[in-house]
Amino acid sequence: MLLDLSKLEWTLIGWLPNTWAWMGDKQAIDLRRYQCTPVIPAVVPGSVQDDLLRAGLIPDWNVGLNSLQCEWVEHRHWEYRCQVQLPAGWAGQRVTLHAEGLDYAGFVLVDGRQVAEFSGSHIPHEFDLTDVLQGGEHRLSLIFTEAPHEQGQIGYTSRSHYFKSRFNYGWDWCVRLVPLGIWDNLWLLTAGDVRLNACLPQTHYDSTQGIGSLGFRIQVSSSAAQQLHCRVTVRDGGEPIYSTVLDCTFGAGKSETALELPGSFRVEPWWPSGMGEQKLYQATLALEDLDGITLDSWSGQVGFRHIRWLPCEGAPANAEPWICEVNGMPLFLQGANWVPIRMTYGSVTPAMYDKLLTTYAQVGFNLLRVWGGGVLEKEVFYNRCDELGLLIWQEYPLSSSGIDNVPPHMPESLAALAEIARSYIWRRGGHASLLCWCGGNELFYEKGLSKPKPVDNSDPCIAILAGLSAELTPHTRFLSSSPSGPSMWFDAELAGQGMHHDVHGPWAVPESMAAWKEYWDKHDALFVSEVGVPSCSPAKMLRDYAGNMDPWPPTADNPYWLYRAPWWIEWDQLAPVYHFSVDNPELERFVAASQELQAEALVYLVRKCKERFPRCGGVMLWHGHDLYPCPSNNSVIDYDGVPKPAALALSEVYKSR
User: Fold this and answer.
1) How far apart (Å, rounded) are the C-alpha atoms in residues 553 and 218?
2) What is the DSSP letter of 261?
3) 70, 87: one domain
4) Is the peptide bond between 553 and the residue preceding it cis, with omega within 30 degrees of 0?
5) I want to staple 385 with a disulfide (CB 3.0 to 4.6 A). Which of 98, 213, 338, 433 is the partner?
6) 132, 165, 190 — which closes off a domain?
7) Cα(613)–Cα(609) distance, rounded to whole angstroms?
8) What are the pLDDT digits (tens) for 567-585?
9) Among 330, 332, 312, 313, which Cα is nearest to 322's?
């Protein structure tokens, strides 16, 4: 039984660090002097910043330079509080608090007494509250301490330790805003002597016969060793199409078991967007005692598809395969790099996911790379990708840092990453949309080398991630990094020498469109997992989020652009061609010129890559959408979820054969 705690009334209060835990004479000390905020309503899931914004205690960080006035929040302690009354039928049962996402570290309090501690935003947390939640009403508090000192865009990947989403600490397409709070689902549950902790379905599809088969990895907790029945049912709508019962033995404590189910059954395949229907079936796995009483169960949607990776035509013998074959049909991968929808990712709702993912599918994308500097998205994201046919390239939480880009090798960092990776796989590894796992973004060596070289599976950190991926999802591809192979970037002088496997860049048109076209005419990479061209957000959006600042002129001398988009100022490129003058405000025309350049450049490069198929397996744009109203960057969908002209122009290329 579950009690959804998001349905309760929550409040939030800010404290100077540690004063909430004052252990003196509470009657003699007025703790209100240590409050940073009054008590305000809170929304769960969400973030501290969202609650403060609704209460008028901080300004909108999306406007002007306002984010600078919000940075104090990450340096305080925050208490989420609610009153909990357990259902009458729960009396005498074991009660567990389950949190899918806590950001980042802190304590659990019941009736003002500390009962548990937590740390880590990328893993779920569970707490046994049986002894403190029996009988009557109780005050449940979750205390969030100061945000860890994680690195933003510039730093040292080798020193990574906390693995909190790095983009929040400042990137070239967003400001610094470090969220704290309950960012994903939160519930209380009761369980008996046997509990099905996790269930990872693994489907197989024979495209020549049109039949499917099914296996599971399950994790079970049991108070004692015992024999159980494991009943599996697959339904098409409400109609059962397969059922079996297996005898299973479990030891005391936690144990993991792999189940390969006998037989196969006729199914319709799941196809990526643009190739066919996204057929999904409902699977149920129930643990039963020997009398047939259900002790615990899992249910979820599964799709049957067969994915093979084949060598690109003419690829060197040492190259990884980059032609994706789905159900016997080769597919050109036309993707985008995915970042969270909002800076405060806990506030993203199912409706927001649905709107944006539907837009991606309508434009013609078939692949999203969930970038390593972000978060493992909520379960609803992966369910919706299953339904829309959007393949997922899922990265673990590692990214480049500019100064050094080598994965961490410290024992505590490796242990933390292993725990995160195992959690990622158990929670998301069973989705039909999952195409591959990846060690992270732009992880490479350069010390002592003439050119940077991407990491491979020989790196100790990457070896751990590769091993866990192979152990838990043996039929899902693992990539060491994006990019991978002997070269990070395309070098025209090395064209034709087999040096360009998966590459990144560039992210802007050089001195002229003619030079851009010449570059892509020579391009010979087997895959391009990140490339982009900047363009401005709509002029109305620039004005709406400027606050009391003037978005004109769009130059590095304008504090508005210097703070919000210093990497992507196109004035020097566009002004001479279109004869713009700082003394003659023409924001609409400047935006139009910027968006026109992006559209022409992206259409050319994508078309050139697609024309080379099957010598090139695909191309992925950096990046798909904005999570912050950045005046200019590489996105092709703006902050409001509206496709820019580039996305509309690319749609014709994507939908062409």
Assistant:
1) 59
2) P
3) yes
4) yes
5) 433
6) 190
7) 7
8) 999 999 999 999 999 999 9
9) 312
What does the pLDDT read at residue 24? 45
Token pair, residue 409, equals: 């090798």
Q: Are residues 151 and 74 in the same domain?
A: yes
What are the Cα distances from residue 506, in Å, to 273, 325, 447, 556, 600? Answer: 27, 27, 22, 21, 15
Closest CA to 365 of 435, 273, 436, 438: 273
Residue 22 has pLDDT above 80, yes or no: no
CATH label of the domain that carries residue 119: 2.60.120.260
Helix (H) or strand (E) holding 399: none
pLDDT one-digit tens code per residue, 377-405? 999 999 999 999 999 999 999 999 999 99
- Tokens representing 32? 């209100």
Contact 270, 305 (CB under 8 A): yes
Residues 48 and 118 in one domain: yes
Within its chain, how far is the Cα of 257 from the centroid?
28
Measured in Å, how far apart are the chain's first and last C-alpha atoms?
50
Q: Are residues 204 and 181 in the same domain?
A: no
124, HSE (Cβ side, Cα atoms, 13 Å): 23
Q: Note the pLDDT tens digit of each residue in 228-276.
A: 999 999 999 989 999 999 999 999 999 999 998 999 999 999 999 999 9
Q: Give the amino acid at 105.
A: A
Within this chain, do residues 210 and 238 fall inside the same structural domain, yes or no?
yes
Q: Both tokens of residue 595?
A: 């968006």
The DSSP bridge pattern shows strands 211-222 and 181-182 to be unpaired
Task: Check whether 29 has a pLDDT greater than 70.
Answer: no
Smallest CA-to-CA distance from 620 within 534, 530, 533 is with 530
* Domain contains 556: no
In a domain, 567, yes or no: no
E strands in 21-104: 40-42, 77-85, 94-99, 102-103
Any idea what DSSP says for residue 53? H
All residues at 6 or more sequence positions from 592 whose CB lies less than 8 Å from its CB, including other chains? none
Assess if residue 333 is contained within a domain.
Answer: yes
Residue 568 domain flag: no
- 241/186 same-domain check: no
Model confidence at 448, pLDDT cuts 50, 70, 90, reads confident
Q: Which helix (H) or strand (E) holds 415?
A: helix 411-428
Task: List CB contacts of 46: < 8 A, sequence separation 6 or more.
Answer: 181, 182, 183, 344, 346, 347
Exposed / middle / buried, residue 585 (Cβ in 10 Å: 0-12, 13-18, 19+): middle
Average pLDDT of the chain is 95
Percentage of the chain with pLDDT > 90?
Answer: 93
- Statement to judge: residues 261 and 324 lie in one domain: no
Range of the domain at 249: 193-302
Give me the number of domains the chain comprises.
Answer: 3
Kindly report the three-state secondary structure assignment for every residue of 510-554: CCCHHHHHHHHHHCCCCEEEEECCCEECCHHHHHHCCCCCCCCCC
**Among 146, 165, 190, which residue terminates a domain?**
190
Q: Give the span between the Cα atoms of 245 and 390, in whole angstroms.
A: 33
Pair 364, 466 in one domain: yes
Q: How far is CA 637 from the centre of its chain?
A: 17
3-state secondary structure 455-507: CCCCCHHHHHHHHHHHHHCCCCEEECCECECCCCECCHHHCCCCCCCEEECCC
Q: What is the dihedral of CA 22, 25, 26, 30, to 10 degrees?
A: -90
Residue 101 tokens, joined: 């996402």
Q: pLDDT at position 27, please?
A: 54
Contact 651/364 with Cβ under 8 angstroms? yes
